[in-house]
Write a structure and sequence with these properties.
Layout (H helix, E strand, L loop, with lengths): L3 E5 L6 E5 L1 E3 L2 E5 L6 E3 L7 H9 L8 H17 L4 E5 L6 H8 L3 E5 L12 E9 L8 H11 E10 L22 E2 L2 H10 L3 E6 L2 E5 L12 E2 L6
Parallel strand pairs: 6-7, 6-8, 8-9, 8-13
Antiparallel strand pairs: 1-2, 3-4, 4-5, 5-10, 9-12, 11-12
Helix pairs in contact: 2-3
Length: 233
């Protein structure tokens, strides 16, 4: 079933007047400019229902499979950043990634709007930011990626883990879109738009893991953002 809807893309702000895609009893639009597929706001879960769904996840330090999953992002990141201060953005309730990194000698701050909501964590610049399976939950991806950009020191790295919608893949049959908290779905075109918009260099480490580096020439952000720890090595 399809119907007309007019919205602005929450990533690139392009105006969209196109047919909705209906999948899993929810409505989505596809941006013709950055290829973001995003859930229409009226289909999103309420915040309480979203938090309850996250609490169903059995992800913790004792789960060796989950730890190995996180190391898929941690290993390539730590090969590029040999010391420094980092942020686990969207850490979830277990804080497992920060524990793994701290065991390797890094200092890591946790932030999550539900489980570690201390806003002071967003007032610093970091050598690296870990963002594993978080970007697909962004209601306002431009706002979130811009915030990540401002929180990175010049030359800092963002480790992004998310599934990409492949060319020709139907949303109605893609298991990753079935999760009702996955409101922003990206493709390679979307990541290319993101890296160009913030002048990040990007490399793909492995399936679903992307390392994005902030330009060294970026000037320091003025205002509330403060330096956190030492500079990159």
């Amino acid at each position: 079933m399809e119907s007309r809807s007019q919205q602005h893309c929450p990533l690139c702000s392009s105006g969209i007047s196109s047919k909705q895609i209906h999948a899993f009893r929810r409505g989505y639009l596809t941006c013709p400019r950055c290829a973001l597929v995003f859930m229409l706001p009226e289909y999103r879960l309420a915040a309480s229902a979203e938090e309850a769904r996250y609490l169903l996840h059995q992800n913790n330090r004792a789960d060796s499979g989950y730890c190995q999953h996180l190391r898929r992002a941690i290993a390539p990141l730590t090969s590029l950043v040999t010391s420094g201060y980092g942020l686990d953005f969207g850490c979830g309730p277990s804080h497992t990634a920060s524990e793994l990194l701290e065991e390797m000698g890094y200092t890591v701050t946790n932030y999550d709007p539900f489980f570690a909501p201390d806003q002071s964590a967003l007032e610093y610049e970091y050598d690296f930011i870990l963002c594993t399976e978080v970007a697909e939950h962004f209601h306002l991806p431009f706002h979130e990626f811009d915030r990540l950009h401002r929180m990175l020191k010049p030359g800092g790295w963002l480790a992004l883990m998310t599934k990409l919608l492949e060319r020709g893949q139907a949303l109605t049959t893609w298991w990753y879109a079935k999760d009702p908290t996955h409101v922003s779905l990206y493709s390679q075109v979307s990541l290319d738009w993101i890296s160009k918009r913030w002048s990040w260099t990007m490399q793909c480490s492995s399936e679903d893991v992307y390392l994005l580096r902030k330009a060294l020439s970026c000037s320091r952000t003025r205002g509330t953002i403060q330096m956190c720890g030492s500079s990159m090595t």
